[in-house]
């Protein structure tokens, strides 16, 4: 089922390269969730942040911060590599939590519902 967040959009004044980066984040985000990350305790928050970042009504500065946090989540080798069981995602969770604390007012019930629906679909596979 399509959501209002499915269409590609760009930040104000962006070039084609920025649209390519958005596509990479979209592809990488769903791939990461499909490999088991959808069961992480912060998966719903990360997915709600993802939808917020794609929302036309979210200010550009907020979208930039959210995409930055999500990009960190996608990096396989970061401060604590995701390969370490139990510890590998703690830094990712901290970055997402800190970003969401700063920007929580921009994540709407629609973003959270889209996140729950997407995760339910992934988890049922």
From TrEMBL:
UniProtKB keywords: Membrane, Transmembrane, Transmembrane helix
Compartment(s) where it occurs, according to its Swiss-Prot or TrEMBL record: Endomembrane system
GO cellular component: endomembrane system
Domain DUF1232 stretches: 63-97
InterPro entries hit by this protein: DUF1232, UCP031804
Membrane topology value: Multi-pass membrane protein
Matching Pfam families: DUF1232 (PF06803)
Region (Disordered): 1-23
Protein name: DUF1232 domain-containing protein
Organism: Ancylobacter pratisalsi
